Amino acid sequence: MAAPLELTCWGGGWGLPSVHSESLVVMAYAKFSGAPLKVNVIDNTWRGSRGDVPILTTEDNIVSQPAKILNFLRKQKYNADYELSAKQGADTLAYIALIEEKLLPAVLHTFWVESDNYFTVTKPWFASRIPFPLSLILPGRMSKGALNRILLTRGEPPLYHLREVEAQIYRDAKECLNLLSNRLGTSQFFFGDTPSTLDAYVFGFLAPLYKVRFPKVQLQKHLKQLSNLCRFCDDILNSYFRLSLGDG
Amino acid sequence: MSLVAEAFVSQIAAAEPWPENATLYQQLKGEQILLSDNAASLAVQAFLQMCNLPIKVVCRANAEYMSPSGKVPFIHVGNQVVSELGPIVQFVKAKGHSLSDGLDEVQKAEMKAYMELVNNMLLTAELYLQWCDETTVGEITHARYGSPYPWPLNHILAYQKQWEVKRKMKAIGWGNKTLDQVLEDVDQCCQALSQRLGTQPYFFNKQPTELDALVFGHLYTILTTQLTNDELSEKVKNYSNLLAFCRRIEQHYFEDRGKGSSSIRSS
Fold first, then answer.
1. Which residues does chain A have within 8 Å of residue B110's beta carbon, measured at their own beta carbons?
2. How far apart are CA B185 and CA A109, in angstroms?
C-alpha cells in the first residue's frame, strides 16, 4: 500500500486542476478518499503516454479508464463510499448512467464539435500540450472521436446528420442538469455531508463546463442559472483543490 | 424531429382520445425478433397495459424499416406513428395518461436515472451478447435476423447490422470488453436494481411507472429467451426480488388479460 500511485492526466486551466472531465473525476475521487496521488501532467515533451488518459501507474499495474481506476483505488482501501447504504450505492450507478447518456454528448459537442469553441479554445489548448508533430494530428483525432460517439449513440440511421441531433442533445443535457440540481437540493453533497463517487463524477463533468471560457456558451449559461450546482463546484474547488493549485 | 414539429405533434396528440384500433409493430415473434428488440417491445406493451390502454400487437418482417427512427417497437395511433419507449411515454402523456404524475421532482429524477442505467448497461450488454459474441452471432443472431429474406439478402443485412453495432460498441468503449466483463456489468446493474427495489412491490412503492415497465421488459426477456448458454439469465436469477417482481407484473398485467405467453420457469 505504500507503493506510489501516479496519475497521468491532462493539465489544468481556468482555475481547474484539469480541463479533461475523466481526469478530473479521478483527481476528485482521490482527494475525497484520501488516496495519495502523484499527478503527472501531460506536457509537450515526449515523456509519458498520451492515449487513453487518465492512466494510473503503480509499481506493477497500469490501469486506465475512470471506472477501472476508481475500482482499483477502492481495492487499495481508498473508498469514498463506505458510508453509503446499498440503495445509495445503486443510486450512484443510476445517476452516473444518466450523466453519461444525457450530459456527456452535449459536453463533448461543446468542447470538440462546435467549431467556434473547438478552433478558438480546445484545439490550441490541447495542441500546446502535445509535442510537434503529434499536435497536428491528435486534437483532430479526438474531435472526430467525439463526433463519432455523438452520432453513433444519438443519431438515427441511416442519416447520421449532426444538425438533427444537436437540438436533441442540448435539450437532454439541460434536462439532466435540472434533474441533478433537483436531486442536490440544498445539501452540500449528493449523499449527506461527505463527498462520494457520485460527487466526483458530477464535479468532473460539470466543472470544465462551468469554468472554461467558450465563445458559444448555451449550455454553460443554463448551468450558471442552477446556482446550487455552481456552488457545489466552487465548494469542492475551494476545499479540495485550493492548495494544489498553488503548486501549478 | 425539430422542437417546433414536436410541439405541433403534441398538440395534435392531445386533441384526440386513444382509439380502439391502436397497433404496435414489431418483428416476427417466432423466427426473427432478437433479444434486445423483444425486450423493448415487451416494455412498451407492459407500459400500455399499466396505463390501461388497449393495443394490438402486429408482427411484420420489415418493422425496423417501417419505424420512423429505425428502432422497434413503434405504435400506430390514429394517424401518428411513434417509436421507442421514451417518445411513446411522452405521446401517451400528451393524451392525458401518465404513470409518473404522482412522483415528486426528486423521484422523477431517480426514475429517469434508473431508466438510463437499464439502457446503458442492460440494453448494451444484450446488444453485445447478440452481435459481438461470436458463438451467439453464429448460432442464433445471423440466422434469425435475416430469416424472412432470401439469399443473399439475409447475409448482407445481418453483416451490415453487425458492423453497425460493433461500431457503436467501439465508440462507447465496449469494443475491448470481454464477455466476462460484460456479464459482470449485468450483475452490477441487477444488483443496483435489486437494491433499489428492496421489498417493495414496484420501484416507487404501490404504483408501477414506466421504469417498472422497462425493467420488466428486459428482465423477463432475458429470463425466457433461449441463448447458447444460460449465463445471462443466471445473473438475473441470483436476485430473488427481481424474479418475484417479474412474476408479479406478468400475472397482474398479462395473464389476467388472457395474454399468457411462456411463463417464467423457476429453477
1. 91, 94, 183
2. 27
Question: For residue B69, what is the domain's CATH number?
Answer: 3.40.30.10
pLDDT in tens, A85-108: 888 888 999 999 999 889 998 998
Across all residues in chain B, what is the average pLDDT? 85
Please provide the distance, in angstroms rounded to a whole number, between the alpha carbons at the two ends of chain A.
27
Q: Does B131 share its domain with B7?
A: no
Query: Which of the residue ranges B6-20, B84-98, B102-116 would you say has the lowest mean pLDDT?
Result: B6-20
Give the closest-approach CA distance of A248 to chain B in angstroms.
32
Query: What three-state secondary structure class fits B195?
Result: helix
Three cell numbers at A166? Answer: 444537436
Domain assignment present for B38: yes
CB A89 within 8 A of CB B112: no
Q: Hey, are the CB atoms on A167 and B3 less than 8 Å from each other? A: yes
Q: Report CA B193 to chain centroid distance, whole Å.
A: 16
Contact list, B121 vs chain A (CB under 8 Å): 97
Query: In what order do the strands lie in the sheet containing B23-26?
Result: B56-59, B23-26, B74-77, B80-83
Report the chain A residue with the minimal C-alpha distance to residue B106.
A183
Name the residue facing B164 among A101, A157, A179 (closest C-beta).
Answer: A157
Closest partner residue to B69 among A148, A152, A156, by Cβ? Answer: A156
Domains in chain A, please, with CATH? 5-242 (1.20.1050)
- Report pLDDT digits (tens) over B100-118: 888 888 888 889 999 999 9
Q: Where are the alpha helices (DSSP H) in A85-133?
A: 86-98, 104-108, 115-117, 123-127
Contact criterion met (CB < 8 Å) for B108 and A93: no
Check which CATH number belongs to the domain holding B191 and give it.
1.20.1050.10
Question: How many structural domains does chain B have?
Answer: 2
Closest Cα to residue B84, out of B254, B189, B217, B259? B217
Residue B244's identity, in one-letter code, is A
Q: Is residue B264 part of a domain?
A: no
Most A CBs within 10 Å, among B6, B184, B195, to test the A interface? B195
Eight-state DSSP code of residue A189: B
The parent domain of residue B4 ranges over: 1-93
Same domain, B74 and B122: no
d(CA A93, CA B188): 9
Residues B126, B244: one domain? yes
Mutate which of B90, B174, B196 to disrupt the A interface (most A C-beta within 10 Å)?
B196
The ipTM is 0.85
Instruction: Determine whether the interchain pair A90/B195 forms a contact, defined as Cβ–Cβ distance below 8 Å.
Output: yes
Residue of B nearest to A101 (CA): B116
CA B241/CA B224 separation, integer angstroms: 17
Q: What whole-number distance in Å separates Cα of residue B81 and Cα of residue B75?
A: 6
A109-119: pLDDT as tens digits: 998 888 888 88
